[in-house]
Specification:
Blueprint lengths: L5 H4 L28 E9 L8 E6 L4 E5 L9 E4 L9 E3 L8 E3 L1 E2 L6 E3 L7 E6 L4 E4 L5 E4 L4 E4 L15 H9 L33 E2 L12 E2 L9
């Protein structure tokens, strides 16, 4: 029979696995467009435990207050725009109006959906080509994606690029860092668990009591652990 694995229990919504969103500063979103070009002012740069990058609070001329990832070089009191064709750092404009070779972040996947891509500290993509119906963005992984020309993106590179340079040193630092984002600190191997917790558990020796290959794709989620329909397993010759 299938077993409730820990990765499945995390979706239950119980207090143990609930995200501490009450500690987050807010939700990142672009303003609701009321006219073609919105002028805004950066009134503060803040830290949120739920985000690796610093965030900037922008107040637009129609009194909308928005929380956005802060790019490198942004300052309090600086003027930024939403819309138009000005490709200065911090402005958010449509992909079709961004010049080729510019670095972008906080990119929408669907027009009007708010930024979904490249929001972490130090993240940025490069606009490499403009096709007839698509804009090509080169991601940090070198993968190229095609997006709608009407999708919005911000110009520049997300600040906080050196956030991973400082070593954690102690396991306690890793615990608090990951707990702030509702992440588990360590991943326990299946062979170290009890039989009721994982199909690979239930022995005093660190070996798997059953085959690690799942032959049928239609089995219950608690049984689909290990290799799924593997053509070959074991040591190669």
């Amino acid at each position: 029979m299938g077993k409730r694995l820990i990765t499945q229990r995390r979706g239950k919504g119980s207090p143990r696995y609930k995200s501490p969103s009450h500690r987050y500063f807010g939700e990142i979103r672009y303003p609701i467009k009321s006219k073609e070009i919105l002028q805004g002012e950066v009134i503060d740069i803040v830290n949120s435990v739920g985000h690796s990058a610093p965030l900037m609070i922008v107040k637009y001329e129609d009194d909308q207050m928005c929380l956005l990832p802060a790019p490198m070089g942004i300052k309090v009191g600086q003027t930024v725009f939403y819309g138009g064709k000005d490709s200065s750092v911090g402005n958010a404009i449509a992909l079709k109006d961004i010049p080729i070779g510019a670095r972008v972040f906080n990119i929408e996947k669907v027009p009007g959906q708010n930024g979904k891509l490249l929001r972490a500290a130090g993240a940025s993509g490069i606009l490499v080509a403009k096709e007839k119906k698509n804009i090509v963005i080169k991601m940090p992984s070198k993968r190229q994606i095609k997006l709608n020309p009407e999708c919005y993106a911000s110009l520049g590179v997300v600040a906080g690029v050196g956030v991973k340079n400082k070593p954690l040193i102690k396991a306690g630092n890793s615990y608090h860092k990951r707990k702030a984002k509702n992440k588990l600190v360590s991943k326990v191997k299946g062979v170290a668990m009890n039989a009721v917790d994982h199909p690979h558990g239930g022995t005093h020796r660190r070996h798997r009591p059953t085959s690690t290959t799942v032959r049928r794709k239609g089995r219950s989620p608690g049984q689909k652990v290990g290799m799924l329909s593997a053509k070959k397993s074991g040591r190669g010759k």
